[in-house]
Automatic annotation (TrEMBL):
Broad class of where this protein is predominantly found: membrane
Family classification: Belongs to the CPA3 antiporters (TC 2.A.63) subunit E family.
UniProt xrefs under Pfam families: MNHE
Subcellular location(s) per record: Cell membrane
Keywords from the UniProt entry: Cell membrane, Membrane, Transmembrane, Transmembrane helix
Keyword Transmembrane helix recorded: yes
Protein name: Na+/H+ antiporter subunit E
Topology of this chain in the membrane: Multi-pass membrane protein
Organism ancestry: Bacteria, Bacillati, Actinomycetota, Actinomycetes, Streptosporangiales
Domain of life from the UniProt record: Bacteria
């Protein structure tokens, strides 16, 4: 079973490379697809590309819910940041917030990092992958309650993504 899992993981990365190749060329004719496959195989031959972890239990409804909440978060944070940018921009304060995630899954942590960085007002500055520790710049942050809200948002996003990919929720961090 490990061989099948490894082949599936490598196939995922090869398909990702092929997709990027097709986007770069802007077309998907036979020559472009075949040359993209050759490039992906060549990249695997000369480097140790990471494998894409194989998700065995994705939950489409939970994933759709996570995407819907992400879309809502984008809308709300855009309005909040836009309001602060137009009304008294000199009074907007930010803060650096450390958050320890509960997951050890690279897929989930990467998705959380991307989700948080794409939202206006938050930016993941650093991730300690070994300890699942995030350093986030959040704004507007006027008091410790706002900083706690940034932490809560990251942990809620992580929880939704854990449910979406079918991974069990880990214990609370120490």
């Amino acid at each position: 079973m490990n061989v099948l899992r490894r082949i599936g993981s490598r196939t995922g990365m090869a398909l990702w490379l092929l997709g990027v190749w097709l986007l770069l060329w802007g077309r998907a004719d036979a020559a472009t697809v075949l040359s993209g496959i050759a490039v992906a195989l060549g990249a695997y031959a000369v480097t140790r590309l990471p494998t894409v972890p194989f998700l065995t239990r994705p939950r489409p409804i939970r994933l759709a819910q996570a995407l819907a909440v992400f879309g809502w978060d984008l809308l709300v944070s855009s309005v909040v940041i836009g309001r602060h940018a137009l009304w008294r921009p000199g009074r907007v304060r930010g803060a650096l917030v450390h958050v320890r995630a509960r997951s050890r899954s690279d897929v989930v942590l990467l998705a959380v990092t991307t989700s948080m960085s794409l939202r206006p007002g938050t930016l993941v500055l650093d991730v300690d992958w070994e300890r699942s520790l995030f350093l986030i710049h959040g704004m507007p942050v006027a008091d410790p309650a706002d900083a706690e809200s940034v932490k809560h948002d990251l942990l809620a996003t992580e929880r939704r993504l854990l449910r979406a990919v079918g991974e069990p929720e880990p214990e609370e961090p120490a």
